[in-house]
Amino acid sequence: MIIGKNFFINEMPKTGTSFLRNYFKNYKNVTITKHHDTIEHNKEKKLLDKKYKIGTIRSPYTWYLSFWKWSCLRKKRSPLYNDLTSRRIKIRRLKFNSKLFSYLFSQVTKKTDEIENLFKNINSKKNFNKFLEILLNHEYRNYISSDFSFTQNQELGYMTHFFFYQNVTRKYYEKFFSSNQNFSKLIKKIDSKIFTNYYFKTESLEKDLKLFLKKNKIKLKKFKHLDKNSTNIDLDIDYKKFFSQKNLKLIEKKENYLFKKFNYKKISNRNKKWISLFIFNSKIISMSKRYSGKSFKDSSVSKKAKFSLKEKRKIKKEKAKKS
After folding, report:
1. pTM of the predicted model, to two decimals?
2. In the 3-class helix/strand/coil scheme, how is the chain assigned residue by residue?
3. Domain coordinates of the chain in residue numbers?
């Protein structure tokens, strides 16, 4: 966490927090604790009494892609990589609810070597989409070996779960482990318990930071030579290159809460519209060539009419005389 005189920053993984940590090292009156700590790890500091309780957030698409790429590079330095490739069955990690036995079975039987292979090639679309299937499909949730495995609602996405872990107290976060709850009502209830009152978006991180510093009357330091993101991504290219249409829809379904809360646009329907528009335009071109007397084989040669207008009139008059 990053803790100032009247603010603190809750650091959600892969949202540009390395940049924020490097920036705030320039201030003597700012404390920087262990990366990705929550308020539960710093209870003695009475953080909820501070004026600005800041969170960080990112588009779900690039969050998943960045997390996977970073895990490919860091391997065992990535908590997510360790969760997926290890068998976690120690008592301190277990939740004694209805999912316990299925969780233990999955941990004992999961093929960790196959999961490790998903992190070997950082440019593999196939590996990335298999990774997404494990994180987003409820049937594979027990493979993840974290608290998320014990959550009860199929509709809950991994990123949404992580968001609440960072932005509500443990008392409300643990409601995800209780069964027989309507998901919409549960989300609405826990959303009302979020303590965060200010957010930095990864997509506009420098701008959001400058606005906050100005609002809080903190002197602006230089941004030069700061590490911003070890897995910097060209978003437009990577959307087309890495995500399958099926997984785009799955992300949009499971992380619907975050899309709505932070006004992130969904792109799966946009891709469909472009495909439909391309097909429609192709048909229009085809029809226009056909009815203009041109063919695809020889569009430069137009079909000649059998008779001119004058000849048609002459033939009509001759027929009239005969009758």
Report:
1. 0.80
2. CEECCCEEEECCCCCCHHHHHHHHCCCCCCEECCCCCCHHHHHHHCHHHCCEEEEEECCHHHHHHHHHHHHHHHHHHCHHHHHHHCCCCCHHHCCCCCCHHHHHHHHHHCCHHHHHHCCCCCCCHHHHHHHHHHHHCHHHHHHHCCHHHHCCCCCCCHHHHHHHHHHCCHHHHHHHHCCCCCHHHHHHHHHCCCCCCEEEEHHHHHHHHHHHHHHCCCCCCCCCCCCCCCCCCCHHHHHHHHCCHHHHHHHHHHCHHHHHHCCCCCCHHHHHHHHHHHHHHHHHHHHHHHHCCCCCCCCCCCCCCCCCHHHHHHHHHHHHHHC
3. 2-266, 271-296+303-322
